[in-house]
Design goal:
- The complex is a heterodimer of chains A (268) and B (329).
- Chain A is an all-alpha fold and 268 residues long.
- Chain A is built from twelve helices and no strands.
- The longest helix of chain A has 31 residues.
- Chain A is globular.
- Chain B is α/β, with parallel strands linked by helices and 329 residues long.
- Chain B folds into two domains: 242 residues, P-loop containing nucleotide triphosphate hydrolases (Rossmann fold, 3-Layer(aba) Sandwich); 63 residues, Alpha-Beta Plaits (2-Layer Sandwich).
- Helix content of chain B is 36%, strand content 29%.
- In chain B, the strands form three sheets. A six-stranded mixed beta sheet of chain B has the order 5-6-7-3-8-9, sandwiched between helices. In chain B, strands 11-12-10-13 form a four-stranded antiparallel beta sheet, covered by helices on one side.
- In chain B, β11 and β12 form a beta hairpin.
- Chain B is globular.
- The chains are: A mainly alpha (268), B alpha/beta (329).
- Chains A and B meet through α1 and α5 of A and α2, β5 and α4 of B.
């Protein structure tokens, strides 16, 4: 696909997402400010209740920073509306126009997902900029860690889309993929380190989780950003994340082929 | 340009018994039903032709169009459009076709149409100069130049349809599928769309397939008809030919000056089937070979103020074909 198409898809999606001011401010408030406040209260309550100075290698301050970083990274990795959009395209016939365009559907949808990050990035700056003043600057934050973390977020964003894509394509056969998406969201939040740092899992479970794709969605980019991952471990993690991207891309391609073969174009 | 050979499509649908027990049963076992949407469709459409695809709801019109546009795969048979198998979705094929659906919006609703057109310019790789010329021409002819910068969701139905037409034709397609392009529009908008389609055909000579339930669309735009009944093409020929083939009579209407009860049904039945008969109007269905004789007889017998000899309306004939099941009407 030509760069000009990518650029225009990207900017069109950003413009589309920003055409509703109320939605922009409400989603910013609901998805960031409220969640950050909830995390702050829970972390303090857990540490105060347990009377322990550290849990899973994190003190109260470290745990709070981890959760806040996970929420911010999650904002850059997950875009709910577009994920649901793929199954809606199939159910309501919106897929038709993409089948007519001389551009690959999967790439179009991914670029649109990237476009949706535009408003999310503005929200991150607006609500995230004052966080260092509230929770302090993480002890192990370094320029190299931030650079490696950005790389890990890029892979996480792509991997999240590539995992979601075939699940959404199940809509070619099933009348509702909502329950599958809920399972995926729960599994990736639990096994990916969004609900709690993976260091809280037993050692043996952590070894298994390191080979699964979920860690590379949240925990890996967050730990890298916070300076808890060295260059060698980062390179290994990126390689595993990329491998999963390749595997999921192949799965997505196969499901797409099978799905479009028996697509009936309902809703048109 | 468009060639279909024994093109067929069968859908498998699930049947569920009504009621709570039916819902419980369907959790464990569902009955499959095969629905033959299109059967053995064979035809050819050349450059510059506008072919009307008509049939009742569920006759298979949209399914046929979807196969020829490459949206769905056929169950059997083959088709070539511009030399390509549509469902293989070769980009060279997709750059040369357009599908306009009156019931389904293709544009981005949250943006002005001009933004969608810019995106389509890049998707289809339309050179800047050609894009500007095409957009100017289409917007001017459809009279929507001022509406290009208004959010699509805020446009009227007619304006939206015009924008859909522009979006579909910007890249200058050589094959155009029009699925109910005037549905829901008022008479003025319908006429504007029809005039535009004719003008576009004259200028660009694409092959067009038009499906519509509005007979005026078919009569104004199409020289040729494909009539579908339960998935089967039961007629492929000229618009005039369908009248010749399926209407064995013409309608003779005589408007009379006051006759004071001199007109009786008995006297008229020898001329043809009497549809209306009173002191002021006589309407007869007369076999084609006897029209002149019947007209002369009416003029001789009654004080005729005006006499009209008309073909049966195309819509009536198509309705008759649709009603007839399993054979000629």
């Amino acid at each position: 696909m030509r760069w000009a198409v990518v650029r225009d898809l990207l900017t069109t999606e950003i413009r589309r997402r920003m055409s509703y001011r109320a939605d922009f401010w409400l989603s910013a408030f609901a998805s960031l400010a409220v969640r950050l406040a909830v995390v702050w209260f829970i972390v303090h309550a857990v540490f105060a209740g347990s009377r322990r100075s550290g849990i899973g290698g994190y003190d109260a301050q470290g745990m709070l920073v981890y959760y806040i970083a996970a929420i911010l990274v999650g904002k850059l990795v997950q875009t709910t509306e577009l994920e649901q959009g793929i199954s809606q395209d199939i159910y309501e016939g919106g897929l038709t126009r993409y089948l007519l365009y001389p551009v690959p559907y999967g790439v179009v949808k991914y670029v649109q997902q990237l476009g949706a990050l535009g408003p999310a990035a503005i929200q991150l700056v607006l609500f995230g900029a004052w966080l260092p003043f509230v929770v302090g600057i993480p002890r192990d934050l370094t320029a190299a860690g931030i650079a490696m973390g950005i790389g890990a977020i890029v892979i996480a964003n792509l991997l999240q889309f590539l995992i979601t894509f075939p699940i959404q394509l199940i809509a070619f056969w099933a009348d509702n993929v909502w329950s599958l998406m809920v399972m995926h969201r729960f599994a990736s939040a639990l096994l990916g380190g969004m609900l709690a740092p993976l260091s809280l899992f037993p050692e043996s479970a952590q070894r298994i989780l390191a080979a699964l794709p979920f860690r590379y969605l949240f925990a890996f980019p967050v730990e890298t950003l916070l300076g808890r991952v060295g260059p060698a471990e980062w390179a290994g993690g990126m390689a595993i994340g990329l491998c999963w991207c390749g595997i999921m891309a192949m799965v997505g391609r196969a499901v797409w082929r099978a799905g479009t073969y028996q697509y009936t174009g309902v809703g048109i | 340009m468009i060639e279909a050979q024994a093109l067929s499509k069968t859908f498998t649908v699930h049947r569920k018994d009504p009621g709570l027990w039916g819902s419980v049963k369907s959790l464990f076992r569902r009955e499959k039903v095969h629905k033959h949407a299109v059967r053995e469709a064979t035809f050819r459409i050349d450059e510059g032709e506008i072919v009307g695809l008509v049939g009742a709801n569920g006759a298979g019109k949209t399914t046929l169009v979807k196969m020829l546009a490459g949206i769905i795969h056929p169950t059997r048979g083959d088709a070539r459009v511009l030399g390509f198998r549509p469902w293989e979705r070769d980009n060279r094929f997709r750059r040369q076709i357009a599908l306009i659906m009156g019931q389904k919006a293709q544009l981005w609703w949250d943006l002005p149409a001009a933004d969608s057109f810019l995106l389509l310019k890049e998707i289809y790789g339309i050179p800047g100069e050609r894009y500007r010329a095409n957009l100017d021409y289409l917007a001017r002819v459809l009279d929507v130049t001022k509406e290009l910068t208004i959010q699509v969701r805020r446009l009227s139905l007619g304006e939206r349809m015009k924008m859909e037409l522009i979006a579909a034709l910007l890249h200058g397609p050589r094959v155009v599928y029009l699925d109910e392009p005037t549905i829901g529009l008022d008479l003025t908008a319908q006429k504007a769309i029809r005039d535009f389609i004719l003008a576009y055909r004259e200028q660009h000579r694409p092959a067009m397939i038009l499906t519509s339930h509005y007979m005026e669309d078919i009569e104004r735009l199409c020289q040729r008809l494909l009539i579908l009944r339960e998935g089967e093409i039961v007629y492929d020929g000229s618009l005039a030919g369908v009248v010749e083939k399926y209407a064995d009579h013409k309608v003779v209407t005589a408007h009379l000056r006051k006759t004071n009860g001199a007109v009786t049904r008995d006297g008229l039945e020898a001329l043809g089937q009497v549809d209306a008969c009173d002191d002021l109007t006589i309407r007869l269905r007369v076999p084609r070979g006897r029209v002149a004789e019947a007209a002369a007889e009416l003029l001789r017998r009654y004080p005729v103020a005006d006499l009209a000899i008309e073909e049966v309306e195309i819509g009536t004939i198509i309705e008759k074909i649709q009603r007839a099941k399993g054979g000629a009407p």
